[in-house]
Specification:
The complex is a heterodimer of chains A (about 350) and B (about 900).
Chain A (H helix, E strand, L loop, with lengths): L1 H17 L3 H12 L4 H6 L9 H39 L17 H15 L3 E2 L5 E3 H4 L26 E3 L5 H9 L4 E10 L11 E11 L4 H16 L5 E8 L2 E10 L16 E10 L1 H6 L8 E8 H9 L5 H5 L2 H4 L3
Parallel strand pairs in A: 1-4
Antiparallel strand pairs in A: 2-3, 4-5, 5-9, 6-7, 7-8, 8-9
Chain B lengths: L1 E3 H4 L9 H10 L3 E7 L5 E13 L7 E6 L6 E5 L9 E11 L3 E3 L2 E3 L2 E3 L1 E3 L45 E3 L2 E11 L5 E9 L2 E9 L9 E5 L4 E2 L43 E6 L10 H12 L18 H4 L1 E3 L8 E8 L8 H9 L7 H13 L4 E4 L7 E6 L5 E3 L5 E3 L5 E4 L4 E4 L3 E2 L12 E7 L2 H11 L4 H6 L8 H15 L3 E2 L4 E4 L7 E3 L2 H8 L5 H10 L3 E3 L2 E3 L10 H12 L20 H15 L3 E2 L5 E2 L3 H4 L24 E2 L4 H13 L5 E12 L6 E12 L5 H14 L5 E5 L4 H4 L4 E11 L2 E9 L1 H6 L7 E6 H7 L15 E10 L4 H11 L4 E10 L8 E10 L8 H19 L2 E2 L1
Helix pairs in contact in B: 5-6, 6-9, 10-12, 11-12, 13-16, 20-21
Classes of the chains: A alpha+beta (about 350), B alpha+beta (about 900).
């Protein structure tokens, strides 16, 4: 009997080992461990054993059963693993085939640049203002100290809706300074992005409609050093910490002292190249301390309050930000251009 | 404003290179746009002396010259020019030299003869006869260069011999010898035969192209050698006898080997400045010299003009000036010069004018231009003999008065123009341009110099109205210093005497109508430092101001007359800052009260709408606010559509950009079309842009924003674009959104651009937000497109109103819902919207969702009917529904459908 059990064990283990499918294993389970299986058949002969032999033989039989069950389990798992592996192999895809991307639209690059600028200024406590593009000549010029006869009032430069130059297309976002002074409580920190219009023919760097971002601060004790500090911070955030700036005197009717701010040429690093026309610097914006007369005209006492203002050209900023070399692309709206951003 | 560095150095000695000069001037406020080295293109060109000339062995017109260029050996150069002679000094471009225009000269071989360089003409040095009047070349007609037009019928026989008669007294003569007459002319020894034997003549001629061995046409009667003009010959008959050739130098003190650049003023550098309108004083050499002196800390050497005077006559007898419109003529200053000898001005003056971009004309005109450049004071010179009655009247022009200006143009004037007139007529446009009738000409004998200060606005408007902005008017319109007129006119008279151009009459006519008192300001160093954020000591401020010719006594600052722009403390602060250095001002961050920044509600909605459009796959565009008036026709708006009323630009760039749009649709259609024409597939675009409606406050516009969608391509149809609109409205939580077939009268009668059967008006409650739909095929055709465009226009103001409140949490359902599908058959005319309303109306409080899932027409459905299937979701919040409860609701719904829409269960 002992021999029989050993044989069953050896045969079964080998059979399990060689099973190719889980169905084969099921058949083998029935063959060896089923009610009519070979092991059961042997166990049925236990009754014929002596009382002394019986416990030892019983134990042996149980050991064989346990061994067979365990082997059966292992074989089954092995087969399952193989089957899974097989399936996964069959399911493999070509990962280089392009995915099906949902169509997502694109923000216009100029507004991407504007959003970045707005975020920076909002972080510094600025409010974003919006105002009319069809503007009073009074706000665009008179209230900004541009006297009658100032060249910017020329009909060759500015679009008008009436002969008396009362209503015009604003030629700058600066009238928003006046609107802010007239309507807001002091102290004021605003930026006012928007469209402006000048009579320039379209070419790679000009457009009769373009965008500016006006900025203004009025508070007690505001200095030109603050203006420099704020603009330096903004420019470094926009163009990188290592960006070098320089401030040089200029003239705007509504600021005094006035300045223009240049950034060191990104192409040549200040040595001079065609991009910067050999100067090593590229003009970025105009700024200055608000002219005391402009404050007075708004009923603000320049002895108590002071302020500064600036104006960025947004197209130029965006073009520099994204290395766009032709202004016309901005307004052409070719999707092959728009979808690059 | 151009500035010659050489001229500048007359007033201030600035010895730095161009880059340093530009940098320093820019940082002190005089922005340098660029520097031109006048000799940048010239190198290795020297003075040469012609040692000998031989005719080229293999050419009928070239010469082989040996030239002393200052080296140990002479160089051999072959030239085709005929105007040179042994002993001439000429510019030589040596082997490996450069000439203007990037011309590179190297050694070469001309018809078998070596040539190591080139002799230069004026033109090759980028000069002309105005720069060197003596460089004019006169050519004789050389008979040995005669090429008949018709070889069969020559006017002069090929074997012409000395003595052969050409015509009348003109005979052929052989040149035996040529010698310089010393004054630029040449003495030629001629021989020819006459009837009675050989004859000879010695003739002095200005023609420079004659050499020994040539044959000339000699007029025995006048004793002159004939030019082409004398022979009535055409240039092609004498191809080498041309009024062109080598520039023969007549300068003093030059020697072979000298660099040509200083001789032709090519060693100067011209700096181009951008002068801002507040600084007209810097539109002059002296003004810029003052800035340069202050910038570099060098002394400024100014010169007080000295006039000897003494010409015959008494000025007040000769000339009377009246200024009836005194308000337009703050100051009028004039002097007179008699016995004028009109001639070219000297080389130094011509060079300075030319380097500053002014064309030399004659001594008197050049002097006025010279003084204008030097002092910034426009000057005018007119011929005294044309000033009738010896009286100058500066007055407003009469209505319709005519005047021909120096440029030959005839102008009809009116009272807005200021003229210089005599007793009978205008002789000049004040401050703009002189009149042709009083122009300085070759025989002008007596000259009046006018140095005046006119009202800037009057001059600007006059110049603008006549479309003639001149150098002078550009200066006047900025407002000139009235104190400058006297030194300027004296300087002009001094130059007249210096040039020997005439005799100056003693005395000055000087009418002072309005010469302002000097501005005196209080120097407040603390306030200046407070504005700048600096700590500049008072002494430094005083020094800066003094360098700029401000007078400082204690705390009183007297502003110089030419600095009309300095009116108050902030202006002084700028002067201090400029020379303290903007880049030395510290960099600080703002202190003071904290302000709260951020976006307004409208700006937040703008951002949200944009984000939603992009999430739906739409790209953002930016379009022009102005459109063509024909755009309204193109989109099919009725002729009488009130929305056509637009702001019109009076001075547009062109018709296409002449009115302010009252609709964004044409802009969108234009961009869609452009992409369509570029063959871009599946285009989806959006813009949140403004329209400009008349009727705002103060005569301004109501500038409303419109969210515009536009799309074409795969998968795009009415329901696709409508879906985007629905998604946007859902995102902003707009309530009671519904779509109605677009009736003509909604939204300002502007539905015409849409397909009548595929357009809807979008509503939130009873408010119409705009349109969505397919663009009318005819409109698409107007844009040249045969495809389907889909657009939507939504009023931003309405969207703002329709925007729902923030989301509020509703507990998730605790009990299961019951789904019921129903299909009803109804008339075609019944819309799904009506059916849905009926369903909602019929439900008894358990209906949570209605979803359309099928519309079916065909077999088993009668013609003219359709079957519409909905999926209904029913749920109670407090219990599980039983089937019976759900069925009761559905039953009620079906009853309502039948009642309201005639729809019966299929």
């Amino acid at each position: 009997m002992k021999e029989q059990l050993a044989n069953i064990r050896a045969q079964a283990l080998e059979a399990f080992e060689q099973a190719k499918a889980s169905a084969d294993l099921d058949a083998l389970r029935v063959k060896y461990l089923g009610k009519k299986g070979e092991l059961t058949a042997v166990l049925k002969q236990m009754g014929r054993l002596s009382a002394e032999e019986r416990p030892a033989m019983g134990q042996l039989a149980n050991e064989v059963r346990a061994a067979l069950e365990s082997a059966l389990d292992t074989a089954s798992k092995k087969l399952e693993a193989a089957a899974l592996e097989h399936r996964l192999e069959a399911e493999a895809v070509d990962v280089t085939i392009p995915g099906r991307a949902p169509a997502i639209g694109h923000r216009h690059p100029m507004y991407i640049a504007l959003d970045e600028m707005k975020e920076i200024f909002i972080g510094m406590g600025f409010t974003v203002l919006d105002g009319p593009e069809i503007e009073l000549g009074e706000l665009n010029f008179d209230r900004l100290n541009a006297e009658p006869g100032h060249p910017s009032r020329d009909w060759s430069d500015t679009f008008y809706f009436d002969q008396d130059e009362k209503v015009m297309l604003r030629s700058q976002t600066s009238p928003m300074q006046v609107r802010a002074m007239d309507t807001m409580k002091l102290p004021i920190r605003i930026i006012a992005p928007g469209r402006v219009y000048r009579k320039d023919e379209v070419d790679a760097t000009h457009s009769p409609m373009f965008h500016q971002v006006e900025g203004m601060v009025i508070d007690k004790g505001v200095t030109m050093a603050d203006l420099k500090g704020t603009l330096n911070t903004v420019i470094k955030k926009m163009y990188g910490e290592s960006t070098q700036t320089r401030f040089r005197p200029h003239h705007f009717p509504f600021t005094e002292p006035s300045c223009e701010v240049d950034v060191q040429c990104h192409k040549c690093g200040g040595v001079g190249c065609p991009t910067c026309k050999g100067e090593g610097w590229i003009e970025l914006l105009g700024a200055g301390m608000i002219h005391p007369h402009v404050l007075e005209m708004a009923g603000i006492d320049p002895e108590v309050w002071s302020g500064w203002a600036f104006g960025f050209g947004l197209e130029r900023t965006a073009m520099r930000r994204f290395k766009i070399d032709d202004l016309r692309l901005i307004f052409e709206n070719d999707v092959r251009f728009l979808e690059q951003f | 404003m151009n500035l010659s560095r050489k001229w500048l150095n007359e007033f201030v000695n600035v010895d730095v290179n161009d880059h340093e000069f530009a940098e320093a001037m820019t940082l002190s406020g005089s922005k340098v746009e660029g520097t031109t080295d006048l000799g940048a293109e010239i190198s290795n060109v020297v003075v040469g002396k012609i040692l000998s000339m031989e005719r080229h062995p293999n050419s009928d017109h070239m010469w082989v010259c040996q030239i002393d260029v200052g080296d140990s050996e002479p160089v051999q150069i072959v030239t085709g020019a005929w105007n040179i002679h042994k002993g001439d000094l000429i510019p030589v471009a040596k082997d490996n030299s450069w000439l203007p225009g990037g011309v590179h000269i190297t050694r070469g071989n001309l018809r078998g003869v070596k040539s190591k360089g080139m002799l230069c003409s004026l033109k090759e040095l980028n000069l002309d006869e105005r720069d060197f009047p003596y460089g004019v070349i006169t050519a004789a007609a050389l008979l040995n260069d005669y090429h008949p037009i018709d070889p069969e019928k020559p006017s002069i026989p090929a074997d012409v011999q000395p003595g052969h008669k050409i015509y009348g007294p003109v005979v052929a003569a052989a040149v035996e010898g040529v010698k310089s007459a010393g004054d630029g002319r040449w003495t030629c020894k001629l021989t020819y035969t006459e009837k009675d034997g050989p004859s000879a003549a010695v003739v002095t001629t200005p023609c420079q192209n004659i050499h020994e061995g040539d044959m000339v046409a000699f007029n025995t009667k006048t004793g002159a050698i004939c030019t082409l003009a004398d022979l009535h010959a055409e240039q092609r008959e004498f191809p080498h006898c041309i009024p062109d050739g080598i520039f023969v130098l007549q300068e003093e003190g030059i020697a072979p080997g000298d660099d040509i650049k200083p001789i032709v003023n090519a060693d100067d550098r011209v700096v181009e400045f951008e002068i801002t309108p507040n600084r007209p004083d810097c539109l002059s050499v002296i003004g810029l010299a003052r800035e340069a002196a202050a910038t570099f800390g060098k002394p400024l050497t100014l010169h007080e003009p000295e006039v000897k005077g003494g010409a015959d006559g008494v000025l007040t007898d000769l000339l009377d000036v009246e200024t009836p419109d005194a308000d337009l003529v703050p100051r009028y200053t004039a002097r007179m010069v008699r016995n004028v000898k009109i001639a070219p001005s000297p080389k130094w003056m011509r060079e300075r004018l030319r380097s500053m971009g002014v064309r030399p004309i004659n001594n008197i005109v050049d002097i006025t231009n010279y003084v204008m450049l030097e002092y910034g004071q426009p000057m005018h010179a007119f011929d005294y003999r044309y000033v009738n009655g010896g009286k100058i009247i500066v007055r407003r022009a009469a209505e319709g008065e005519e005047l021909t200006t120096l440029d030959g143009k005839v102008h009809t004037l009116n009272a807005n123009h200021l003229v210089i007139a005599d007793e009978t007529r205008a002789v000049g446009l004040a401050g703009i341009m002189g009149g042709l009738n009083s122009e300085i000409v070759a025989d002008t004998a007596d000259v009046v110099f006018e140095s005046a200060c006119f009202d800037g606005t009057c001059i600007r408007k006059g110049a603008l109205a006549l479309g003639m902005r001149t150098e002078a008017s550009a200066k006047f319109e900025k407002g000139l210093d009235p104190l400058n007129t006297l030194p300027a006119v004296n300087r002009a008279c001094e130059l007249v005497e210096m040039l020997g151009a005439g005799a100056v009459v003693d005395g000055v006519i000087d009418i002072l109508n309005n010469v302002p008192q000097p501005t005196v300001l209080k120097l407040e160093p603390d306030k200046i430092n407070a504005l700048l954020g600096t700590d500049v000591p008072e002494d430094d401020m005083v020094n800066i101001l003094k360098k700029l010719d401000f007078q400082v006594e204690g705390d009183r600052v007297t502003v110089p007359s030419w600095r009309g722009d300095v009116r108050r403390m902030a202006d002084l602060a700028e002067e201090v800052a400029r020379f303290y250095g903007y880049n030395n001002i510290p960099v600080t961050l703002m202190r003071g009260q904290t302000t709260q920044g951020g976006y307004s509600e409208a700006q937040k909605l703008e951002n949200r709408l944009g984000a939603m459009c992009r999430a739906c796959g739409f790209d953002e565009i930016i379009t022009y606010s102005f459109i063509s008036p024909t755009a309204y026709d193109k989109i099919g708006w009725a002729r009488d559509c009130a929305m056509r009323n637009s702001f019109k630009i009076l001075n547009p760039l062109g018709e296409d950009t002449s009115i302010m749009r009252t609709t964004t649709l044409p802009s969108m259609l234009e961009i869609l079309t452009r992409n369509w024409n570029y063959r871009n597939k599946n285009v989806k675009l959006y813009e949140l842009g403004r329209i400009y409606l008349p009727g705002g406050e103060n005569g301004l516009a109501n500038e409303s924003k419109v969210l515009t969608l536009g799309a074409y391509g795969e998968g795009m149809d009415f329901y696709a674009i409508k879906g985007v609109v629905e998604a946007i409205l859902k995102d902003i939580r707009a309530g009671d959104v519904h779509f109605e077939p677009a009736a003509a009268e909604v939204w300002g009668n502007t539905v015409a651009p849409y397909h009548p059967g595929r357009a809807a008006a979008v509503y939130s409650g009873s408010d119409c937000l705009g349109f969505v739909g397919q663009i009318h095929p005819t409109v698409a055709q107007n844009y040249g497109v045969d495809g389907e465009f889909y657009c939507a226009e939504l009023s931003f103001d309405e969207l703002m109103l329709a925007k729902g409140p923030d989301a509020e949490y509703v507990s998730l359902p605790k009990f299961p819902s019951v789904e019921r599908d129903i299909a009803v058959v109804c008339d075609e005319a019944v819309t799904v919207g009506r059916l849905e309303s009926a369903i909602r109306k019929g439900a008894k409080g358990l209906l949570k969702e209605v979803e359309l899932f099928d519309i079916y027409r065909g077999a088993s459905i009668p013609a003219g009917k359709k079957s519409v299937a909905f999926s209904l979701t029913l749920r109670a919040d407090d219990r599980s529904l039983t089937g019976e409860e759900a069925d009761a609701d559905v039953k009620s719904i079906l009853a309502t459908l039948e009642q309201e829409c005639g729809a019966v269960l299929r």
